[in-house]
């Protein structure tokens, strides 16, 4: 077993060394551009850690699957940014802003195909199983993005529907990445499923934490604007529970906040309502539930504890204490 | 060997029976919609005929690959129609017009993943080879679409570049479909390559013919508006050769035609220039060259002539006499 940072270095090098054609430039320049906006590369790392968990020896052979997951993630960012009309991504211009929507549509498509090219470069006997997991995951991510957009025009969103949305939009990719690693390491179906559940539940907990940190996070290390979700009226887990519990009088206040021009006042009043209806505790509890489920799934995988250290470490880094 | 129409019926039934989820509706309704706008289904038929050529017996097992190709084609239509701002497709509203651009982007993405799901349903031992061919083809189609868009803002396009564009944008899909059939039927690498060349060259000839028919076709059976390419200043093979040969005086006339408001006059003057510079004959010759290359490749495949009858029949149906 190598250290996590060695794997991360491997991944960074593999992405840097990946060769994309130069022609046509409008198809491949945006791909090089988005892959160059270095993110945390958590997802490809999960592929490698998923294989490492089972003491897989041929770690070099996990690189194509790791790249496939990273390419897929970046494809989804390019297309989601068009749909969300986002001007910035990782502090830089989004592809559709830097070039055009057409360029973003088509280079996104090409990057999705590039992800499948990496699947095709995996160990041939593993390709059918990898392809199946990758496809299911990819389709669920599309479903999650559509549900997320549907919620924008929906008055009330149920907790279950919200969880189903974040599961599909962001968490299955973490579970799928880990499962692909497990497949490469010849893990059996039950082990694969447990590792998948670890990733999916950890992903849900992480997203719930993101909703909480948006309101209660430390501005210095949150990495995004605190209160950003409130300002754009995003239906987070806090907002969803507030809407379910709010009294008639406060409901009017809440409705009026949509057109509140003073950002500070909007955030402050929303936080007061969150406090009054004690929604933070509900969200924290839900986050703990999913994080518990994640750790429970991992604990059931029959490998030595030391093999699990890297994954537990990663999970703990993702899960900061918010209270 | 079954007849071509039996295969076509198989394909139509398989598409009708394909189950797509109902939720989220905005993701899957557009997929059902575009697949329901019945096209000619030539591409999935080519997968089956590619296997049939080698007397493959388990024709039922070719259906997933045939569906993959048809899904891919429809994915590319959804996204191309956004990029080309096309209001109509097969006489019906395009997906982005009927729903929205966001819906068209995302349902297109999902349909591309669905195509890969069909690849995953193919005979497992064949999946690595099929995936490789499918990926190469998919990427070239993206490249072709980008080149086509690039040409719109380019003054002069060389014949070679134009051929490379139509090869990538439309012809490799025909070649790839046939090759996938050949892979399923255990054809060797040389046979696969010859069949691929047959499809690609036939596709180029077909596209050149389409350029010619736009100007000289019989309005009653062309299926599109005669002169449509001229009216939207499309860089067809005729236009490209005209621009290369036109004298200084006629070049001014040609430039002014871009802003000619009278459609009849625009078509008439363009046709006069085509006649003066004899570009039709050049285009016809080029079409014949590619069609000859196609037939030559097919003739080299070492199977009995009767096995080739269905493919020759299809090719002859595609290649009408234009002079």
UniProtKB/TrEMBL annotation, chains A, B:
<dbReference type="GO" id="GO:0008299">
    <property type="term" value="P:isoprenoid biosynthetic process"/>
</dbReference>
<dbReference type="InterPro" id="IPR008949">
    <property type="entry name" value="Isoprenoid_synthase_dom_sf"/>
</dbReference>
<dbReference type="GO" id="GO:0004659">
    <property type="term" value="F:prenyltransferase activity"/>
</dbReference>
<comment type="similarity">
    <text>Belongs to the FPP/GGPP synthase family.</text>
</comment>
<dbReference type="GO" id="GO:0046872">
    <property type="term" value="F:metal ion binding"/>
</dbReference>
<dbReference type="Pfam" id="PF00348">
    <property type="entry name" value="polyprenyl_synt"/>
</dbReference>
<protein>
    <submittedName>
        <fullName>Polyprenyl synthetase</fullName>
    </submittedName>
</protein>
<keyword id="KW-0808">Transferase</keyword>
<keyword id="KW-0479">Metal-binding</keyword>
<keyword id="KW-0460">Magnesium</keyword>
<dbReference type="InterPro" id="IPR033749">
    <property type="entry name" value="Polyprenyl_synt_CS"/>
</dbReference>
<dbReference type="InterPro" id="IPR000092">
    <property type="entry name" value="Polyprenyl_synt"/>
</dbReference>
